Amino acid sequence: MRRPIKVTVWNEYRHERKNEKVKEIYPNGMHAVIAEFLNKEDGINAGTATLDEPEHGLTQEVLDSTDVLIWWGHTAHNEVSDEAVERVYKRVLDGMGLIILHSGHFSKIFKKLMGTTCNLKWRAVGEKERIWVVEPGHPIAEGLGEYFEIPHEEMYGERFDIPAPDTLVFISWFAGGEVFRSGCCYHRGAGKIFYFRPGHETYPIYYKSEVQKVIINAVKWAAPANGPEVQFGHVPEPLESIR
Amino acid sequence: MRRPIKVTVWNEYRHERKNEKVKEIYPNGMHAVIAEFLNKEDGINAGTATLDEPEHGLTQEVLDSTDVLIWWGHTAHNEVSDEAVERVYKRVLDGMGLIILHSGHFSKIFKKLMGTTCNLKWRAVGEKERIWVVEPGHPIAEGLGEYFEIPHEEMYGERFDIPAPDTLVFISWFAGGEVFRSGCCYHRGAGKIFYFRPGHETYPIYYKSEVQKVIINAVKWAAPANGPEVQFGHVPEPLESIR
Amino acid sequence: MRRPIKVTVWNEYRHERKNEKVKEIYPNGMHAVIAEFLNKEDGINAGTATLDEPEHGLTQEVLDSTDVLIWWGHTAHNEVSDEAVERVYKRVLDGMGLIILHSGHFSKIFKKLMGTTCNLKWRAVGEKERIWVVEPGHPIAEGLGEYFEIPHEEMYGERFDIPAPDTLVFISWFAGGEVFRSGCCYHRGAGKIFYFRPGHETYPIYYKSEVQKVIINAVKWAAPANGPEVQFGHVPEPLESIR
Amino acid sequence: MRRPIKVTVWNEYRHERKNEKVKEIYPNGMHAVIAEFLNKEDGINAGTATLDEPEHGLTQEVLDSTDVLIWWGHTAHNEVSDEAVERVYKRVLDGMGLIILHSGHFSKIFKKLMGTTCNLKWRAVGEKERIWVVEPGHPIAEGLGEYFEIPHEEMYGERFDIPAPDTLVFISWFAGGEVFRSGCCYHRGAGKIFYFRPGHETYPIYYKSEVQKVIINAVKWAAPANGPEVQFGHVPEPLESIR
Fold first, then answer.
1. Which end of chain B is less enclosed by CB atoms within 10 A, N or C?
2. Minimal C-alpha gap between D230 and chain B (Å)
3. Which domains does chain B possess?
4. C63 and A CB contact within 8 Å
5. pLDDT tier at A236 (50, 70, 90 boundaries)?
6. pLDDT digits over D60-69, tens only?
7. Is the ipTM above a cut-off of 0.90?
8. A9: Cβ–Cβ under 8 A, 6 or more apart, which residues?
9. Which residues contact A48 (CB under 8 A, 6 or more apart)?
10. Contact state of D179 with C171 under an 8 Å Cβ cutoff
11. Considering the entire predicted model, what is its pTM?
């Protein structure tokens, strides 16, 4: 039997402590809500880590035992130490899955892995978002309908300055006239990365069943593949003909 | 100096002869309008062909001298002979560019080259379309703004049953709540294919400057690359070591 | 608990009955060997079907209960009825996985789904093949080393006339000087397709542990995602503003 | 008429001054040879820059007037200042083309744009390389045969730790048993990037006609597209319905 997928839900956890509206929605932080619904799923074992813990809760030991890291950050990207970013980066290339949520698009780790600015357009008036599935055979679309709606969300609009995803799973429609590549899959090194757009802190996004389903699916998709251990560098001359 | 790109604009040319509204917009057919703006461009030399000509105007001779074929069809896809489709198919794989416009998504040739149904959602109430550029470095985006609008268009919505494009250049937003992958690039064989969504016959779409610019750009992009002549089949055993 | 993945291993099953050398390697056919190692795997339940059964063993009932179809054909592609091909085609677009082995590159079903000729170079002198993993984070690479070797194989060489795969997992090196894209993943409709190169009938390829591992991995990857049921065609006008 | 493409050929230019063997092949440096064959081409205007010039010859002024930057580095990647790397990075995302040659795979700029280690296997015994065209319709394959050979080269082998290219144009075969993705196209921001493998300093690689043809083709492909000027950040609420 396969052992459970070990997830660490990382959250900046600042808005929830400083903003009354956000605190009301997520009294224990978004990470707590996300870990809770993940832990209801067979085969997933989720813990949490936050910015203000020592080493941001992202010690080498924690990362080494993490199969999939989920990341939410917004207001304090620059407070994440370069050392922690480097540790996460190496673990991703070594096979750990990474799920970047919403405003995490501007995190140091996502920008470093994408190699681009990851910039975008935004507008926070609580407009309607419709998230369309464009790759219905992808495991991250399991159990979804053709689209799902979020009645009030912050808008993110194209041009989203990312590399074209290896697989584009979702495209968002916004009432105000914009579109967005909302579900983007990447292979980087031996790791898999999924960017998922929804999640503005002032709306109860992570209580929504479709959003939870997507994150659960993404955890399963992003779990390490246990592929070859790659050797880099000098390789010896073949001693005899390999023909 | 490079010789001009030889374009053949193929049109079903039925709506324009039977429907008064369409006739008013395109008295000589859409193909005439498209060929006209192409011929104003340096380095492009455009002719036309239509369904009701002998062999649909797509004789082997015409195809052999065509660098890029543009295709508009809607009401009579099934009247296109399998022989003509096969000739076009072989020419595309041999290097001829192919630009499929709007309702051409359901043409025999596009379905054959894509290997999928190319089905989609549609609604014809003349709603607003906004076409967003998502790959600003692609040559088909040359000279465009971040988006352009078509005030009244037929809606095409996802799921669009196509292979994920090699490069996705445009995504459309529709007022009624849908999105669509509107500019899709493919390599097939030695040929390049571009699907471009706009062009419902009851609106003057092909008079619009941005639409014309996209088609001009696509012609240049899709022109044959003059790459290697590929040999298939049995290859002899190396007579001596190739090391 | 997830129900087992139902696999149907389809084989042309002609070489094994007509050619003594092949019969010796696969006395009950390649399909029997493949089904056998699949059935040793937890969560996989494999049956077989062959060309000379009624409807080639590919009745609607069989296909409807098949999650992943594996396909080996070579000498009798044209004897597969268009009706059977059409049934398989629809099931793939509807979500069934499809794994095409070796000379199945020239099967009707693969050519129809790819939209290209699927032609290639070949040479049958039993040279060495080395299959390199180029996407180590992909689930089809699970449990493999950086490469594996097949001491004697038929060579397949580029240009392989396929659409660029959505994900390229393996590249083969051949002693005689050729390379080949040997592990190619595609989404088509709601289905997933994997092309896997090895498997010439005169060598005991499907007894090789790495080859078996790849096929097992591919079955798991290609199993249906149970994503949205897609609706195509006309969609009604929104009765009220969706903003 | 289109103005010429302004190319800057950047070279580390150390091996040529320190190593007699390399000096003999490239007495004025590889950059001089590359610029020379580029300048013979209509529509290309090439200059050079080297590591030991002030600001490595990569001042803002030089970069601002460069359409395509070609990069060769090997022994002194770490001597390239972070400021210069940042200037190049911003220009690429802003539309400048970038062609990375051979050992430039390990340059700061390539690793930053790829988001991965860009590590690989290597062996320097002067074995034969065969470079196969796998996307014959791509403009970078113009004028080539199905493959070309380099009789003596340093081997680079997979796993090459890069993101899967947007388009894979070449795959190399090496006599010693390795394969390599040798021609890789990327869009990043508004810029286009091409990685091209050949070019070890101890062999006269850049005198070879096919290698020169590839670089000329890549310059034309990577030239800026003059697409939309992208605006990021806050966008205002639509004042009226956009429906």
1. N
2. 6
3. 5-116+182-222 (3.40.50.880)
4. no
5. confident
6. 999 999 999 9
7. yes
8. A31, A34, A35, A38, A46, A47, A48, A49, A70, A72
9. A8, A9, A10, A11, A29, A31, A32, A35, A57
10. yes
11. 0.98
